[in-house]
């Protein structure tokens, strides 16, 4: 597996890593966790989303575009 798979990763991040590695989808945001890594409080959604996107790329997976995400979530078009 790419990246570090250590025990100091918080549970939501670990779940994201395992889920993506097994071919599932991932979500990331303050509604899921307040920590970027164990003991480090995150200051917003951007670092969480960026970390998930980086992880997906490391697994050679693509992230959904904004347009695709709106469609998946049945959101109104911009």
TrEMBL record:
- What GO MF annotations does this protein's record show? 3-keto-5-aminohexanoate cleavage activity
Q: What is this protein called?
A: Unannotated protein
Give the source species: freshwater metagenome
